[in-house]
Design brief:
Elements lengths: L5 H31 L1 H10 L1 H28 L5
Helix pairs in contact: 1-2, 1-3
Keywords: Membrane, Transmembrane, Transmembrane helix
Length: 81
Amino acid sequence: MAAMSSDAKIAVGVGVVVFAILFFKLLRGFIRFFFRHPFWFILLLVFGGIGFAFNILLGGAVILAALVGGGAFMLLGNFDN
């Protein structure tokens, strides 16, 4: 990161912050959902759907963070080169 411009560092930081927020919201949402619906928790636990659903939602969080970071790059003018 030493060779990156300050605008690029800001854009990467924005992407990391967005990912961290979405990741912790995902964890909190999973915990709240499974405490409210224990039947679904047991059903998904038995059939292996918890990991699948978590990975799909985590992938969505990564994609959204990449889009926001890319938007910050474009907004700060780093695609001019």
